[in-house]
Design a protein that fits this description.
An eight-stranded parallel beta barrel has the order 1-2-3-4-5-6-9-10, surrounded by six helices. It has a two-stranded antiparallel ribbon with strand order 7-8. The protein has a two-stranded antiparallel sheet with strand order 11-12. Helix 13 packs across helix 14. The protein contains 15 helices and twelve strands. It folds into two domains: 273 residues, Phosphoenolpyruvate-binding domains (TIM Barrel, Alpha-Beta Barrel); 55 residues. 44% of the residues lie in helices and 15% in strands. It is globular and about 70 Å long. Helix 4 links the parallel strand 2 and strand 3. It is α/β, with parallel strands linked by helices and 350 residues long. Bound molecules: glyoxylic acid and magnesium ion. Magnesium ion binds next to helix 9.
């Protein structure tokens, strides 16, 4: 491990100093755009007003013969639009692919000053982050980029999950980690063709009632196959001071299941999720903006404990230093949402 005093030094002469704190940004949804499709690029100005992050996807879902067009299309859309407070990200190809070196070199050269975050797929360990970290520093220096481009890792291989703590702390460039259930399922040999969500066969069977036969029907309960990974990722990210996200939900015809998957991740500590279809944007906005009733109760806790210490009862519920911290998480997020959304600001009374 690097010495603490060296950790925050630029990795190339002339590269900007690494950030010590992540910028405070609302990132409820990372909206994927296929940049080789002109019709989709034309919608970017509209999207900028609707989503928190616009991501130009260069990796999976882009056909091999459109990889160069996607890269050029991303550069065009980045140059053509003013993103304001909306994040501009790209998902580059994997480090073992034939496209990735040109993805990084061309994108940073053309729009490195505008780019907030590079999403790196199929991260297996800290070594993948170190490679991109060094290369970005060299390119930032070469192109006189003044703010560091951050790295977001996708957690989508068994080896990556094993190494998630080392990945989260590999560089001051680390912005966060997203759970990628599709590649992860394949990497683990999970027997599913779904992209996120539950599975009808992943369940526990209730005990048999005493005296009933083996063929008497018993209740079964569906379980969450992503719980372990999500919790492990959230702990690794929170401990490293970076953000955790749920990734894609593939069944566009089942908004209720998408909402349930997003909500589980929100409750466990995630900041947002990917939206692959326009219909998922409203779901992410609803889920990752705290509930006004919860915010009202959290404000009551904080008001009753101005210095955050002691113990009080509110509506029959015990509050102390710890619940005051919980309340602060909700109110801080509500303030971030309110700054962007006047409708919710009014409902939060902030
Ligand atoms: C995302 O890239 C996934 O594989 O789920
Ligand atoms: Mg993937």
């Amino acid at each position: 491990m690097k010495l603490p005093r060296n950790f925050f030094k630029p990795l190339a002469i002339g590269a900007p100093a690494p950030l010590r704190e992540l910028p405070l940004k609302l990132e409820r949804m990372i909206h994927f755009v296929p940049p080789h499709v002109e019709k989709m690029r034309a919608k970017v100005p509209e999207l900028i007003a609707q989503v928190d992050v616009v991501l130009g996807n260069l990796e999976d879902a882009i056909p091999a013969d459109a990889k160069t067009a996607a890269r050029a299309g991303f550069i065009t859309m980045a140059q053509a639009n003013d993103f304001g407070a909306t994040g501009l990200w790209t998902r580059i190809n994997a480090l073992n692919s034939p496209w990735v070196l040109d993805d990084i070199r061309e994108v940073v050269a053309a729009v490195g000053q505008k780019l907030d975050v590079i999403m790196l797929p199929k991260v297996e360990g800290a070594w993948d982050i170190h490679y991109l970290d060094q290369l970005l520093a060299q390119l930032e220096a070469k192109h006189a980029i003044t703010k560091p481009i951050l790295i977001h890792a996708i957690l989508e291989t068994a080896e990556g999950v094993t190494n998630v703590e080392a990945i989260a702390t590999a560089s001051p460039r680390m912005h966060g980690v997203s759970l990628g259930p599709a590649d992860l399922a394949a990497s683990r040999a999970m027997k599913t063709t779904r992209v996120g969500g539950g599975h009808p066969d992943y369940r526990v069977l209730a005990d048999a009632e005493p005296g009933t036969g083996a063929d008497t029907p018993r209740a079964t309960y569906q379980q969450d196959p992503w719980h372990y990974t999500m919790a492990k990722m959230v702990d690794a990210c929170a401990a490293a001071g970076i953000k955790a996200f749920y990734g894609p939900f593939g069944d566009f015809s089942d908004p209720a299941a998408c909402e349930a998957q997003f909500r589980n991740s929100f409750l466990l500590g995630c900041a947002g999720a990917w939206t692959l279809h326009p219909s998922q944007v409203a779901i992410a906005k609803r889920v990752f903006s705290p509930d006004p009733a919860e915010v009202a109760f959290a404000k009551k806790i904080i008001a009753a404990m101005p210095d955050g210490s002691g113990a009080v009862m509110i509506d029959g519920k015990m509050q102390d230093d710890a619940t005051c911290k919980q309340a602060k998480v909700l109110v801080d997020l509500a303030r971030l949402v309110a700054a962007k959304d006047p409708g919710l600001a009014a409902r939060y009374r902030l």
